[in-house]
Each structure stands twice: as structure tokens, then as C-alpha cells.
Amino acid sequence: xxxxxxxxxxxxxxxxxxxxxxxxxxxxxxxxxxxxxxxxxxxxxxxxxxxxxxxxxxxxxxxxxxxxxxxxxxxxxxxxxxxxxxxxxxxxxxxxxxxxxxxxxxxxxxxxxxxxxxxxxxxxxxxxxxxxxxxxxxxxxxxxxxxxxxxxxxxxxxxxxxxxxxxxxxxxxxxxxxxxxxxxxxxxxxxxxxxxxxxxxxxxxxxxxxxxxxxxxxxxxxxxxxxxxxxxxxxxxxxxxxxxxxxxxxxxxxxxxxxxxxxxxxxxxxxxxxxxxxxxxxxxxxxxxxxxxxxxxxx
Length: 299
Ligand code: TA6
Known about the structure:
The chain has a single domain (4-298), classed as Beta-galactosidase, Chain A, domain 5. It contains two helices and 22 strands. It has helices at residues 4-11, 249-255; strands at residues 16-20, 26-32, 35-40, 45-51, 78-79, 104-110, 116-122, 136-144, 147-156, 162-164, 166-168, 171-173, 181-183, 189-192, 197-200, 211-216, 222-226, 231-238, 242-247, 267-274, 280-282, 287-298. The strands form four sheets. Strands 5, 11, 12, 14, 15, 16, 19 and 20 form an eight-stranded antiparallel beta sheet that branches. Strands 6-7-8-9-22-18-17-13 form an eight-stranded antiparallel beta sheet, with no helix packed on it. Strands 1-2-3-4 form a four-stranded antiparallel beta sheet. It starts with a helix and ends with a strand. Bound molecules: 6-O-phosphono-beta-D-tagatofuranose (TA6). 6-O-phosphono-beta-D-tagatofuranose binds next to strand 19 and strand 20.
């Protein structure tokens, strides 16, 4: 098991530092002039993004697990090779195995722009036998500046087509779910996954109850307007034609052991996906990049 000390020797710098948290998981701190990012090797999960002079942009549950084989509740979970429940076997973990696996650093450093980057990788050889179902190379490239970019690069290294669904399942830190509004999906069609009905979005999205929607055929940038924090959080994307919007509200929060009963007030998910009709198939040798770019603007 590689140590933070060994990782600092190979990838560390005055802007990149690996450390082992009390719960035993290793994460990297990316410290750029414009802001700071924290990325766990477990699941290649961005845990937080704190632009200079701002509140944390990403949300983390106080009740999150930080254990091998379990998902971390918050930040940007990497959902792959399936989004939601497995299409054929509901006994398999929700949102696939990428977020449950230990990824390895592949590259780290500073971009000419001054952004600080870390690249993590996952191969079939690195995952538990029960998930050995394809030849793939996954990379997650995180770049931190005054913005945060997270790009999941999926490569088909096998001789057969590779089909999957995916999402960068971003949890955002907000002042109060009943005060925010999300724009950008106006007029888009969405599936309300709570009752599988189809609707067209009229105007901004506001929250008064459990909300779990898959917006289809949209490459739109979403904007979370948060008057309580006096800021807009801009969620742009590339390589995605589907966006999921989720808040569990109270009853579902109480059913999740790794989610505080009242934490739903202070989080919302805007998820950058390849899900629903936007699932992808890669031919041998082909790759695809699913990217989210996050920026917070005070007002
Ligand atoms: O955000 C969409 C969703 O599929 C919701 O239905 C909810 O289950 C959420 O993901 C969290 O899933 P998780 O497996 O992380 O508890």
C-alpha cells in the first residue's frame, strides 16, 4: 500500500501535497493562487474546491463514510461504468465501482496558466475481481485555479465495444435549499425519476420537496443562484448531453445512514452525466471525455 510520503516524493511540490487523514484515506491538496482543491485517491473523488476568499463550493456530509469499498458522500463522486442502479443486477453497487476503487496518481504539476493539476488512473488490474468486466483505462484529470475542472477520460483498451453510463455527481454547498434557483435548463425535457413521468422545465428550478430529475438532450451550463451566500455557482460541461438535479429532502435523508437528517437544507446536486439516452459506446481504441468546469462568482 503506497504511502503519502512516497507520493510526495514522486508527485509532491510546493503546490501539491499528499496526506493521510485520520480515517486512513490518502488525499492530495492542490494549492493554486486562485483557489484550493482536495482530491481523495479513494474513488478519485474531488472532496472540495475553495476559491480564494470564498466559501467552500462543494458539500460533504458530516456522516460520510471514509472506508475502503464504501462511497464518500460529497464532493464529486465518479459514477462509472453505470449511473444509478446496475441495469441487470440490482445487487451491484449503485453508481458503479469507480468511486469504490483506489485510484493511483499518474501525473501532477502546474499548467502554464498557473492552474495546479493532478491526474489519477484506474485499470482493470487495480479493481476487485468481481468487477473485471472489460478492458478500459480511466483517467481523472483535476485542474484547480479560480475555477475547478474535473475531466473523466474513458478509454476502450479492448477488442470489443465498451458501453457505459457515467456521471460526475457534484454536490454543491448552498446556504438554503428553499432559497436557491437553478437556471440553464429552461425548456429542457426531464424525467422525474420519482414517478418516471416526463415533463418540460418551465423557468428556473426551485425546490420544495424531494427532487430527482434526469434532464435529457442538453449541453447547457447550469447556474445555481444562491442569495444566502450572495453568489452564483456556474456549472459548465463538455462531453455530456444529460444533467441530473437532486435533493433528497427530509424523508430520503433520514433513510441514508451516511447523510444527516437535516443536511438536505445545505446541498444540491447538479450532475454532469452520460445517462439515460445519453449512455455511450466506445469502439476499440476510442476514448471519451466527460468534463465539468465549476466557478463561483460573488455578487
Ligand atoms: O442523484 C441521482 C441519484 O441517482 C439519486 O437517485 C440518489 O440515489 C443519488 O444519486 C445518490 O446515490 P448514492 O448511491 O450515492 O446514495
